[in-house]
Structures are given as C-alpha cells and as structure tokens.
Amino acid sequence: MEPSERAASLLVKLRAFMSDHVYPAEPILEAHAASDRRWEVHPKVEELKALAKAAGLWNLWLPRDSGRLLKIAPGRPGTDESEADAWMRGPGLTNLEYAHLAGCMGASVWASEFFNCSAPDTGNMEVLLRYGTKAQQERWLRPLLLGTIRSCFAMTEPAVASSDATNVTSSIVRRGDSYVVNGRKWWTSGACDPRCELAIFMGKTTPDGTPGVPKHRQQTMVLVPMRTKGVTVVRPLPVFGYDDAPHGHAETTFEDVVVSVKDAELLGEGRGFEIAQGRLGPGRLHHCMRLIGMGERALTLAARRAEARVAFGQPLSRNASVLQTLGRARVTLDGARLATLDAARRLDAEGNKAAKGAIAACKVAAPAAAIAVIDAAIQIHGALGVCDDTPLARMFAGARTLRLADGPDEVHLETIAKLEVRRSRM
Amino acid sequence: MEPSERAASLLVKLRAFMSDHVYPAEPILEAHAASDRRWEVHPKVEELKALAKAAGLWNLWLPRDSGRLLKIAPGRPGTDESEADAWMRGPGLTNLEYAHLAGCMGASVWASEFFNCSAPDTGNMEVLLRYGTKAQQERWLRPLLLGTIRSCFAMTEPAVASSDATNVTSSIVRRGDSYVVNGRKWWTSGACDPRCELAIFMGKTTPDGTPGVPKHRQQTMVLVPMRTKGVTVVRPLPVFGYDDAPHGHAETTFEDVVVSVKDAELLGEGRGFEIAQGRLGPGRLHHCMRLIGMGERALTLAARRAEARVAFGQPLSRNASVLQTLGRARVTLDGARLATLDAARRLDAEGNKAAKGAIAACKVAAPAAAIAVIDAAIQIHGALGVCDDTPLARMFAGARTLRLADGPDEVHLETIAKLEVRRSRM
Amino acid sequence: MEPSERAASLLVKLRAFMSDHVYPAEPILEAHAASDRRWEVHPKVEELKALAKAAGLWNLWLPRDSGRLLKIAPGRPGTDESEADAWMRGPGLTNLEYAHLAGCMGASVWASEFFNCSAPDTGNMEVLLRYGTKAQQERWLRPLLLGTIRSCFAMTEPAVASSDATNVTSSIVRRGDSYVVNGRKWWTSGACDPRCELAIFMGKTTPDGTPGVPKHRQQTMVLVPMRTKGVTVVRPLPVFGYDDAPHGHAETTFEDVVVSVKDAELLGEGRGFEIAQGRLGPGRLHHCMRLIGMGERALTLAARRAEARVAFGQPLSRNASVLQTLGRARVTLDGARLATLDAARRLDAEGNKAAKGAIAACKVAAPAAAIAVIDAAIQIHGALGVCDDTPLARMFAGARTLRLADGPDEVHLETIAKLEVRRSRM
Amino acid sequence: MEPSERAASLLVKLRAFMSDHVYPAEPILEAHAASDRRWEVHPKVEELKALAKAAGLWNLWLPRDSGRLLKIAPGRPGTDESEADAWMRGPGLTNLEYAHLAGCMGASVWASEFFNCSAPDTGNMEVLLRYGTKAQQERWLRPLLLGTIRSCFAMTEPAVASSDATNVTSSIVRRGDSYVVNGRKWWTSGACDPRCELAIFMGKTTPDGTPGVPKHRQQTMVLVPMRTKGVTVVRPLPVFGYDDAPHGHAETTFEDVVVSVKDAELLGEGRGFEIAQGRLGPGRLHHCMRLIGMGERALTLAARRAEARVAFGQPLSRNASVLQTLGRARVTLDGARLATLDAARRLDAEGNKAAKGAIAACKVAAPAAAIAVIDAAIQIHGALGVCDDTPLARMFAGARTLRLADGPDEVHLETIAKLEVRRSRM
C-alpha cells in the first residue's frame, strides 16, 4: 500500500507546495475568516489555485476512467484551450494513489480547494462526469474542472433523517417541459460561496404511495442554477462556532423554482437514489484520507509542542504520561491510515460493492482516530489548543462532523456487522 | 447528599425561573451572539438580573461566612440601601446547598450571570471578601455584589505553563507609593465585556533568584482598574469558534500601568500565590456543578430527540443502540454528579485541605462526563447537534475547555495519585 | 452517605478482623485452591466463621425487618440456643449501613463467607425469610443462618437466555401431593460445596400456551434437598480458568426428582417470577458493594507496588504515566462507590421500585469500575499480576462475570434509558 | 499486503487443516487440560504434528535466510534423512507471508505447536540458527526443528523489572572451562513440558560496577540442558487460573549448575543482551499475528452466536446494539491486522531497525484489539463465554498477558513516542 512511483513523485511536489505555499497562507486565511470580510473569497485562494495548476497539482482526485467519460470537446493543440484541456483531465490516478495525496492535503483545512480537490465539488463533478449530457458537461463541468465556479449539493433536509436518502420530502413536479422544484434543505455546504453557481438538488418526482414505484425510485436529481428565481440561501449554519466562511453550510429554500427538464435532469426520472449511492463511495474515502492528514498534522504539532514546552522544570517530551499520549496517538492514527489505504486499494481492485465493508470501516475509524489525536494534541497544547492560534480546534470541529456526515457511525457499523454475520455463516 | 430543606425550596424557585425566563431567552441571546452587535450586552440580560434579584435568587454562591467577612457598612433600614444590603449578603449557603443550585443553572450557558453567580466574578468577589480592605470592598465589591459592574482575572500568560501558578513572568515593581505593572496575559475571561471595570492581576514583585524568597512568595495580586492608562484588550480568543461575546476571553497587555499600592495591593506583597490557591477550591467546584447541569440538559435533549425522531421506520428511542447510549450517559453523569456533591459536602465538613483529593477527582470526572454526554447527545441529534439550533455544540466547547482551565486533568490526576500512594502506606 | 455511628463501629471491628484474620488466611486458602484437595472445605474457613460469630460480625446482611419475618421459635434465655438466636437475627442494618461493611469484605474474595454474608446463601435466606413457612424456616433457614449448611439457586439454564427469567424451560409437574421436577440447570453456584444441602429451584408449573396464564405466572419455586434422588451435579464450570472450589459453579440435572408440595413449594404456584424479581434488588447491591471493595484492594496493591518497584532507575510511583493511571483509577472507583452507596440509600428511603434506576446504574458502574481498576493494577504489577501470587487475577475473573450475572449490562442500561426517556417528557 | 501466491496456496492448505484436524481436536485437548493427566502430553498432539509435517505445513515460521544459516549436514538424498532435511528447512517465507499463516493458526490456542511454530521454541531455534555453533545446532537445533524435543527461555526474574533486560541478577561465573550458573527465574514458559530438554539461560558474567564494561555487555546467554543437576522446576504459574498444562509457565531455580563453556556459550561472553534484542523483533510479530487470529475466531463465534441466540423474541443479530458491537469489533480488529501486516512488510523490506516503530505499534494494537474483540464476544455469549465451553475465556487470558510479555504497552508506546518527537523535528 506504499505509493506507486507516480504517486510518490506527485507526493514530493505536493509536500513542497504545502510547505512553500499552504502553511504560510494559513495565518492569512485564518485572520480573514475572523474578519468582517470573511464571506468574500480571499485573493490568496485564487493565487494558490493558479500556482497549483502550474505545478501540475490540479484535479488530482479525478478517477482513472475520467478521460473516457469526459464529453467536452478537446481544445485545439497549441492553444490555451489545450492547456485547459490537460487541467480538465488531471493525472487520472487510482484511488490508492490519490489516497496518499489527499492525506497530505488534509493537513491543512484550507488546502483541498487549491488543488480543485474539495467537497462537494469533487462529488458533483463526478456526478456530471458519469451522468451529465454533453451540454450539461460543457455548461457546468468545464468551469468546475477549471475552478472558475463552485457548486453545492442540496440533499439533506431538516425535517427527516438523512441517513436514509429515500426520506427526502422535497418535490420536483413535472409541468410540461419544466420541473417545478420546492423544498427546504440544509447543510448545503458551499452554497454561501459567492462563486457558487450550481446546486445539484434531490427531490421526489413520485409522491409516496404511488402504486408500482418502489421507495428508491421516487427520487430524481436535477441541476439548479443558484441564480434561478426562488432559490434562497437562508443562513449559514455554524459548526461548533465555525461558519466556515466563505464556503458556508447553508440552510436553503427552493420555492417554485422552474428549470427546464432537458437542462436539469440527471440520468433520468427516478434515478436520484442510484446517483446518490454511487456518489458516496469515493467521497467517503476522500474525507477519510483528509482526516488522516488532519491527524498527522495534529500529531506533529503535539510532538513539537511537547519538545518546546517546559512545565515543572522539564520539557513535556520527557514526561512519561505525555509520551504515552503521543505513542497512543500514533498507534490509533496508523490503524485508521492503513484501513483507509486498504479500502482505496480494494475499491480499485474489486470495485464499489466488494469494498463496501472496507469503506464503511474506514469511515468509522478515520474520524474517530482524527478526533482522538486532535483532542490529545489540544490537551498537550493547553489553552492554546482551543483557540485559533493553531489549526487544532477548527480541525476538531471538522473531524467531529464526519462522524455524522455521509452517514453516521451507527449506520456504517450496522453495514459492517451485517457483512460479518453473513461471513460467519461460511 | 440530597438538598437541605432551604436548598430544596430555592431549587423549586430556580427551576421555575429557568423554565419561565431562561430557556425562553436562549434563542434571543443565541441570535444576538451571532449578530454584529454581539459585543454589546443584550438588554435581556439586565432584565433577567432584575427579575432574579426580585425572586431572591441573587448571589446564591456567597459562602456561609460572608456576612462576617463583609466590611461594607449596612444600609439604613427601610431604604433602598437596605434592600441592596440583602442582595449583597445572599442566602449564605453551604457548598453542598449551592451545588444543587449551580447544577440547575448549568443547564443554560447563559444562566449563571442572571443570578450574579458567574465566573470569574464570583472568584474575584470571594478574593475581595476575604482579603480586601474596607475601602477596596466599598469601591469594587459593592458594585460587583450588586451586579452593576463586572471584572476579570489576569493570571494566565501565553509564555509559560500556567498549570504552575508560580511561573508568571509579569512584573509588579514598587516605585514609591505606587506599583508599576507590566505583562502580557491571555484567557482574561470577561475583559471584553463593556461593563468590566476591574482586573485582579497577578505578577512577580520579587524577581527569580532573589535570595531568601521562596518560589511561591514572589507573586503579588493587585487591583487594576480596566480604564487605567496602559491596559489594552488586544483581542478576544475564540474557543472552538465561539468568541463568547460580549464576555470574551481576552489577550490583554499591561504596559507601565501605575496603581497606588494602598488601593491596589491585596493581602500583602508576596502573597499572590496563597490567594490563587485559596481562590481555586470553590471555583473548581462551581465549574463542576455547572458541568453536571450541562450534562443533564444534554441528556434531556437527547432523550426527547430519541422519542421524536423517526429513522428506518421507528423512533430512535426504540433502537437498542440508542438506548444503550442514553443509559450509559446517565451512568456516567450520575457518577460525576455524586462525586461533585461529595466534594462539596467534604469541603463544608472538613475544609479545603481535607477535600483536596475529592475536589481534584470531581474536577476530572465532571468535564469528562459532560463531554461524553454532550457528545452522545450531538450524535443522537445528527447534524442538528453541531450547529447552534441546540445549545449542545456551545456546551461542548465550554465543557472541553474545563479539562484545561483551573488545572489540566493531568495535574489533578497526579494530585489524586500522590494522595493514593500515601494512603496505601497505611 | 457516610456510615452511621453503628455502621462505623462495626466497620472498625470488621477492618481489624480483615487485617488480623482474613488477609493472613488468603495464602493458605489460595494454596488449598491450587491443591488436589480443593473440593474439600479447608478447616480455616470454619475456624474464621467461629471467630466472626464471636466478634459479632455475623449475618450483617440481614435486613432491618428480618426480626419481624423470622418465624423460628426463640431460644430459651441463658442457653446456647439464645446465643444462636442472636446470631440468627444479626444487627439488622439498613442497606446503606451494610453497603459500607460489604465494601470492606469485598477486599478479599474469600471473606464474605466468614461472616455468613456470601451469595447465593444470602439471597436464599432472604427468600426463606420472606416466603418460607414456619416449617421451612425451621428446617432450612435456621441452619443457613447459623452457617452449618449451605445452599444453591438453580435458575439459569444453558438452553435459554436467562436475562429474561420467564424463559426457564424446566418443568415442575404436580402429581398428587408431590411435585416431579425435571430440568438442566447451570451456573448453580455453590452446588459443589460438600456442605450444600438445599437447592432453590425454579421451573414451570404451567406449560407455555396454557390459556389464561400470563407469561410471568407460569413459574414456581420449590425447595429441593440436594440429596434427593435424581439430583446430579454434572460438573463444575470454570470462570476464566478458576473453578472456585469448593464452592463451584455447577451444571446440574434434575431427573424425575420428587418432592412433597407442602415441604417444597414457596409462596404458591405461579409466583416464582415474583420471588425472583424481589430477590435481585438487594442481591445486586451486595455484589456492587463487594466489587467496590475489590477495586479498593486492587488500588491499594497498585499504589504499594508503584512505590516498591524500581524500573529504569526510579520507583514507578515517580513515573508520570503510572501516576495518571493511579489517579484515574481513584476517580473511576469513587464514581462507582458513590453510585452504589446512593442506590443503597434510595433503596432504604424509597423502596425497591423507586430505586430501580439507581440500582441498575450501580450494577453497570461497579463491575466496570472494578474491572478497570483491577486491570490497571495488573498492568502495574507486570507478569506478577496475572498469576495467583496476588489476588488480582482471581478478582478480575470474578468482576468480569458480574457484567453478566444478575442481568447483563445491556439489560440494565436499557432499563435506565427507558426511565430517562420517561423523565425527559416532564 | 495481500498474501503472495505462495502464501495464498499454503493458506488454503492451512485452513483446511484447521477445519479438518484442529477445531475437532479442541474439545479433546480442552478436556485433557481439565483432567488429572493434564501435565502429560496428549497423544493427539504428536498425531497432529505428524499430519502437519506430511501436509507440508511444518516450520512455516523459518525465515527466508535460514538455509544459509543452517550448519547441520544435509541428509543423504533418497533416505529418511533427506525428508527430515526438508522439514528442517521449511518453506522459507517472508515475514509478511508468514503473518498470514500465523494469523490463521492463532484462531486456536493449541494450533501453533502442531506446525512447530510455537513460542518459545521458534525464538530459541532462531537464536540457535543465528548464533549456534555447528555442534550446538546438531545437538539442539536438529531435534527442535524436527519437533522431537521442546525448549524454554529463562530470562525473566521475579526480583527485577524485566522490561529492561539489562536488569537480570542471575550469575554465570567462569570456573576453568565451565560456567557455574545460579539464579531464580520465572515465566519460563514450556519448562513444565515433559519433552522440554533445553533452557536458554541469561545471566550476568560481569558483575555490576565492573570498570570498563557497559551495562548492556554484562549479560551472557548459555545453553543449559534441563536434566542438569541443580535445575529445578519449582512450580507452574497460573495465568488467570489457567496453568496451560503441559506447557506451563514455570518458576525455576538454577543452583550451582555446571555447564561446559564450549557447549553452553552463545555468541560470546557479554553478548546476551544483543541476542535478546535480536530475538524479540520477529517474536513480537508472531505474537501479534496470532492475536489477530484469536480476534478473528472470537468475532466469528460472536457473529454466529448473535444469529443463533434468541432473546426478547428475536435473534441477537437483529438487535441494533449487538450489531454496533460486532461492527466495532471488525473495525478495531482490522486496524490491528493491517498494522501487523504492515510491520511485517517493513521488517522484510527495511529491516529490524527501520521497522522498530511499526513493530512496537502493532505490539500495542494487536493485544488491545484482541482483548476488545474477545471481551465483546464473551459479553454476547453471556455466561457461556466465561467458561471453557468456548475458547474465548482462555484466549482472553492469553491475549491479556501479551500486554505485558515481550515488553509492556508502556515501554512500546514510549519507543513510538520518541520516534514521533524525532520525526516532528524534520
């Protein structure tokens, strides 16, 4: 599960980029996030995106088969278009290769965006790649792949448990060549970003109880331009006090929003649940990879602090209890790291279905490990650890949400357990 | 350890006050805390303070012996002064009696202030009560007891480990009848409040290495009016994204601040460490009591959510795993609750020194229990639990800091362990 | 929750007895338990029972109301009978008073028997006290109270989950004035003891599906003399390798065992479940009290070992990590100790039903705390801790079974959770 | 980290062997272990050893380079000697290949011996392979490799902390061409076995404080035939009540035991510590691999039990809380499994020193995971789980000792932490 040669070489570049550009930018972005202008995008972000493109560290997340799936006409050779074309295709890595890189990016909560590797855009791009028409790809996927716009994913609703995606209550009603979209969504991450142009929206095209339509064929996904009449970003929801501006986790309403069926419909009526399922496999893995990176960063900070900080006459790193904490953190983190790499390997080798248990396992292990390690690092930092002079508190908040986002622990554990019971019969 | 008759009767009143006034005010205060005017005090706060005074729920924290310690001249009977006099004396409860009441207050993070029972004012008032001259009490203790001003406690410094209070590096230099105060402090909680008028400041009057002066006799505490030249509130420090406005946890600097020795000095030169030690016993206990209250609130919210929320076709409260979580939360919380009450009982019956181990034990148990219960409640709430539509996330942040504030877990556990080793010799 | 004066004075005596007699006897009994003669009762046991009687430390568990319930004719004053009479009545303590004493006894796994306070005899005696006829009390309760015979409780069956007592499949069939008893039981603790004369047996007098008989009225309890034809002790079941000889946890069979209805029947046909429920409240509490005592013993041994053992150039007690472990152990143990005392207090003050949640809570907390503390003590002892040169390994095995015996954790947690949900509605 | 083709093919054979021969033999061996003849070797053991040899499943643990190290003359082709020769060489697997096989063997506590893969013989054979003279190999290594004798390792002493191997106090005094060996050892595993012929003994040839001799050059290892005058097996030490007969963990004394220097000395005077260090790397890994196997077995048993056992009207496998437990067990076990495989991979690829941190990490993770999973399985089994009708309780005892044996958790965590601090400087 060591990185391939190609991944190793990208990893060297990426680490240098992190040291040279990302870590130095952190205090700037942190200060911006605490300022009154935090809902605007800081120029540093676009600057670093340009640098990452130039360094060949762009769209690293794009799956191996994306070339085949891309319906966008290639640019003419020797023009800017052709450069853009290369950016749009990325290096085409395996999940295992990308795992190592995403782990590295995860060390900074700001980093993924610089490499066009951040949620929910990656998931949305993957949906457009797999299920978008040529026209949909040209209109939305192109600018997303080039990083000129951003997007959000409007699925979760306040009124129902979203661990079961069939639960959505929003409605998508066909009226002639149009759909009329209504619903209240929340945790629409990214909707607050001024660059956000597109929502992928899930709702029911078939009401409950319609005869002959099974529960998981009632839902449809549609593309809704954010600037359509009736789309309202109600408020950003904070996460443990962090509003994650300018990205933001929004409560959004869709009131009588009208879109053309041809432009909006993805894959076909009644296939929304199917898309949602497919979208989540690699997405969960990406989250896990980044969580490992968070844990690594926290552990490094903790070890450095232990060496630098003197209490009761000696550095903390000579205190046996602090050493136990550091050692335990490494053991915990490595277990989760290996579980994540192994899930990526299985996803590559055996596909989504066979890797289901392994992905569920790392989706439980990685947030738990990250939380444990970050929490230990906070404790070693003392009061410094809970404020924003280190990235620890913000990481903690992010890691904690991932015991809930993309399925709570409990749902994944149940998935694993049922596989285990089946295996035990053999 | 059940509440005495007096405590029970106050508890009935307090619970009614919480239901009638505090819980309904929470959304208002939460919204204010998210607004641009959050550094101003919301009028609701003063309104509720007046109601609490009228209800006889004022200064409940004041210790039994406070009447004896108060040097402020009593008001003339039959005047407003006499009413104020009663407010300034409070009911004079034992620690065990107060424990039950503070537990109840802890259920809302905003509540303690309404009853003039919030940190760091209570600790500061206790210092003034025990060590203040008549003049110091008239000038500072009177308005604090009446709730017309607030105060802060400037001890912790960014440069040194504050788990050992002898470490402070700030200097207090005698110049004639004055002290010149210099230092950089942080986590000066409450310093941002527009009503904050007073800092109790700890620094060294004797430099390190002065012959004949032991390490714990180098420190002195002085009263510094916040509006003195040279006092600067540099910035508020957020706690997991919460800035706790308008209270705020400030970084503060004191640059050549001049105060008169007579007005400023508390107890005497070189006795700052002694004051700090005494200040912490009941203060730690108050924190623990409130943490139990937080835990109780979280558990109630979790149980209600479990009944109300339907997932996979049944309320969560019929899911065996959710029940295990709720049951475990109660067991954890009750252990910490009883440990806190027992520490209060021992503090009353046997005094600070004999209760040292018990106080240290609940200082470890209560934050851990509160964190565990709140975290479980968040998980049961799903994404709702991490935003500010419930008090859970804010409570979590507060509870987490209390594994660090007033001594990190590790220091308390070491205290307990040394007592245990000593006991095992017998 | 401090011991009453009466309990405190008994506690002084009991502690002296433990130091003077019990701890010195431990190596003798441990060696006997490892010898070929371990299924015989070591003479030391009867010797210590006699000493305990003489010291007034006999039948301490007997509840306050036992005098009223005892139907045995009092002995003539001035004779041996009258002395026996006093022994049979015990001091009549409250549950809270006894809690302190049982905690002290728990420090040695051998101790309870010396004071006639060991399971399952105490539970059986309580059943006979509450539900036995005068004749049954004369025949069985008298020698049990005097410690001349022992008894066992045959309820658990290998074939069905015993967390639900209505599940028993053994049959008790009426034939004229007799009952014919058939069934396979296990975990019949004490059945291997050569002094064991009596089994209290639970079976169904009404088969499943009999119209008009509710599920919990099918069971009956009968007294079966061990030496009756058809009663077979099949084998002792080891607990983590310990067979607990000569007591033993037996698999037993009852094949066409005939007993007279009049002699055997307790309380009446169909009331076995009712008896079982009542039997468990105080019994669970006794187990918890003893578990706390085990934990205290383990913690003392750990602290002593930490002081005595040198590793890497210093005693373990100067290693910060060992101190964290000791401190954490005390915090854990105290939470469980207070929870147990509080449950005893509530049982005394409010009765079985109101104390249900509190008893369930300590039934979860006490084994968990004991296991955690004993396990930590084992780790501090190194390899010494897993063998029988200290009482730790045997205690561990005993404590671990109590996460299962008298209801597994899961059942108790569910009980607590349901009470919590109900409370949250208010 | 998937098994190589060679390992995969051996794994198929091994699994079949486990199902066909090992699991069916378990009740026989368990019954024997509970009988009076348990200190004799049951004939089934030798029978299964013969079958394993015949199946090519012999000496699987032997490292890749063992052919090169073996100084024993090869047998003449076409004779029995030549068959023995093949047995003595084993398949020569990498650590990673063997990891998969040892994991499979670990599922039964009895299994390793059948394949000549059990401790402490493997470690002793490795020492003889690396450091033994031709004569020593002929005399001791040949019969050990052929499984006709067994051996023990006499290092740990009751008087000193054995986490630091330089601590041994036993003495080895040169007298002419002989060494005179004196010392009290314990946890000399295997010394009770009637087939045990050899002890590898570690003692000091240079007393403390000898000028010019560093602390880790005072120790020497010598070969001591068990039947030498002065060697006494004092007693077997039980582990949580299990004496592991006929293997046994012995307390042994060596009183004026005389051995010839030429026959006995390994590697040279003063090089005992060096041998001890080298011996432990792969040995620790073997233990970890087997622990994973134990965990797998426990999880399978738990899942089966959950399906088979009905409580409160449904199989446990439909209870959400039981599913959480099973899911959590898999997550925990997989983290430790991958950590162990990764350590094996690194040991192969980078050698002992570079793999130090990884080996320490799995030495902490594997026992913890095994204990957690076995404990969960016991809880799911109820009372059945603590007795010997399943292998769970015995496995638990074995797994628990491995948080102590070959270095306690605390020592390994400190090793890891120090590496982490060093890494954080980069």
Automatic annotation (TrEMBL), chains A, B, C, D:
Cellular component aspect of the GO annotation: cytoplasm
UniProt entry keywords in alphabetical sequence: FAD, Flavoprotein, Oxidoreductase
One GO MF term: flavin adenine dinucleotide binding
Cofactor: FAD
Database matches in Gene3D superfamilies: Acyl-CoA dehydrogenase/oxidase, N-terminal domain, Butyryl-CoA Dehydrogenase, subunit A, domain 2, Butyryl-CoA Dehydrogenase, subunit A, domain 3
A Pfam family the protein falls into: Acyl-CoA_dh_M
Domain Acyl-CoA dehydrogenase/oxidase C-terminal: 270-418
Classification via PANTHER family: ACYL-COA DEHYDROGENASE FAMILY MEMBER 11, MEDIUM-CHAIN SPECIFIC ACYL-COA DEHYDROGENASE, MITOCHONDRIAL-RELATED
Family named by the database record: Belongs to the acyl-CoA dehydrogenase family.
Name of this protein: Acyl-CoA dehydrogenase
Organism: Micromonas commoda (strain RCC299 / NOUM17 / CCMP2709) (Picoplanktonic green alga)
